[in-house]
Design goal:
The protein has 499 residues and is mostly helical. It contains 21 helices and no strands. It is 74% helix and 0% strand. The radius of gyration is 26 Å and the shape is globular. The N terminus and C terminus are likely disordered.
């Protein structure tokens, strides 16, 4: 295989960028514009808004909460097979949703199955892009991650038209069929480095081959068919059998030479080594959360996700239930918010690179502005005003692009992967809880006013906590006001979260 240093920052890498962009476009188009589907589900299943909201909250939150598992799958099996499998999950989940008899089934098919598939796509596309780019990694990741916003913008209008033409079931079937193109995108994801699972198989195979060369093989392996002129076992058959069985027999290979209690001691030693590694990992997570600024950032991410995500799901129903518009507009509010989020990601990413701007305070400011917008939504009595507020909220929701930079500033590049996983857990947990809570407020009061006041207060509280606990008087580290010079390494798992 060609050396990775010769193919970085160009060549086939741009095909990877195009394929990854399309993968995120196809996977996240429907989940990011789920607000268009939400009123249809309410009308079809006649369930409460709180129960129905679980569908949209799970499809967005499950992928974030399961991000460590998704990343482990990519590390072990590679981006291509993971993207291929995720295409089956996303397409299958969408098509199953077309035949959902009730909301409970929809929660499983659309919320969990599609959500996990999207999480796998996100991890695979970022990982393969990191492998192909070094100096231009930021640009490449920026192009790839805009696929979610562009997908939300286009899918919101497309799903609206498909529902008019073919109904809700036909819309989901067509969107699911389009998601099958994820398998075509996976074909472009040629790996530069052999994934961990295959490296383990290869190492075990080489070790076993050396043992067969220098150690007398068992009697059964020396049996030769009658009439055969060969005196050595068939190598292709041995290699194939080893590749199939080596993973299950990895521990037995290490202990097969030992007898009695020695083999048991080897097994106990291996288990203790695993336990030691897990204990060290948990200790590292505990040390990360001991940092006051990091803890404040986690709380802020949770409160922001809890309060700012529900409008993505409910904004169309807010307009219809308030009598501002009879049906979904040609350009839905979800589309306006999606394109504003795309612009916000780029603009805030440029601002945080300015030396005298503190990333933590910039994030707190975006939360303050978003919280104020949420408080203004209940008192808005015109559709144009709701469009403007949706655009402003979408712009400041682009602050997700700041998370990796702020995390690096707080914990350093060496702990970026673990800290980012913690942040995604808090964010995913908030996203999962937010829409059901807002839906329950409506079921209780028959109005969205109290729900959005609650959401706005949550976001403002998060901004206050982040700003207060990040003041210089609390800092224990010297020269914290100086912006760190972040040098990303070629280790993909440390930079995959930069977007």
């Amino acid at each position: 295989m060609t050396s990775s240093t010769k193919v970085l920052d160009g060549g086939w890498g741009w095909a990877i960028v195009a394929a990854s962009f399309m993968a995120q476009f196809l996977a996240y188009g429907s989940p990011q514009s789920v607000g268009v589907l939400y009123p249809e589900w309410l009308h079809t299943y006649q369930e409460g808004k709180g129960m129905t909201a679980w569908v949209g909250s799970l499809v967005a939150g499950v992928g974030l909460i399961a991000s460590p598992i998704c990343s482990a799958c990519v590390d072990n099996f590679g981006a291509r097979p993971v993207t291929l499998f995720s295409g089956v999950m996303v397409a299958g989940g969408l098509m199953l949703s077309a035949f959902a008899p009730n909301v409970q089934f929809l929660i499983f098919s659309y919320g969990i199955v599609v959500g996990l598939g999207c999480g796998l796509v996100y991890a695979a596309t970022l990982t393969i892009t990191c492998q192909y780019f070094d100096k231009r990694r930021g640009l490449a990741l920026g192009i790839v991650t805009t696929g979610t916003s562009v997908g939300a913008f286009i899918y919101a209008t497309a799903q609206n038209e498909l529902i008019v033409l073919y109904g809700l079931d036909g819309c989901l079937l067509i969107i699911g069929a389009m998601a099958l193109n994820l398998m075509a995108c996976s074909g472009f994801m040629r790996p530069l480095n052999m994934p961990g699972y295959y490296l383990k198989q290869k190492a075990a195979l080489e070790r076993n081959t050396e043992e067969q060369l220098f150690v007398k093989p068992p009697f059964d392996d020396l049996k030769i068919a009658v009439g055969s002129a060969a005196t050595t076992p068939e190598k292709p058959l041995t290699v194939k059998e080893l590749l199939i069985t080596i993973d299950a027999k990895d521990l037995s290979i290490q202990t097969e030479k030992k007898e009695g209690h020695l083999a048991g001691l080897a097994i106990v030693k291996a288990i203790k080594q695993k336990q030691k590694a897990y204990s060290k990992y948990m200790q590292s997570l505990y040390e990360i959360l001991q940092d006051q600024e990091m803890l404040a950032f986690c709380i802020a991410i949770f409160l922001f996700s809890l309060g700012a995500f529900p409008p993505v799901l409910f904004v169309e129903d807010v307009a219809q239930s308030g009598g501002l518009i009879e049906e979904v507009s040609v350009i839905p509010l979800v589309s306006i918010g999606a394109i504003a989020t795309c612009i916000g990601k780029l603009a805030l990413g440029i601002l945080v690179d300015i030396k005298w701007i503190n990333g933590v305070y910039l994030y707190a400011f975006t939360m303050l502005a978003a919280g104020l917008v949420l408080l203004f939504i209940p008192i808005t009595k015109s559709y144009v005003g709701l469009q403007i507020l949706t655009a402003i909220l979408g712009f400041f929701s682009g602050n997700w692009s700041l998370t990796s930079y702020i995390t690096t500033k707080i914990v350093g590049i060496d702990r970026l992967t673990q800290a980012h996983g913690i942040l995604m857990f808090f964010g995913g947990f908030g996203i999962m809880l937010g829409p059901p809570v807002v839906g329950w407020f409506f079921d209780w009061t028959q109005s969205y006013d109290l729900a959005f006041y609650f959401s706005g207060i949550c976001v403002l509280l998060g901004a206050f906590i982040l700003f207060l606990l990040s003041l210089p008087c609390w800092n224990r580290r010297p020269s914290e006001n100086d912006k760190p010079e972040v040098q990303y390494t070629s280790t993909c798992d440390k930079v995959a979260s930069v977007a």
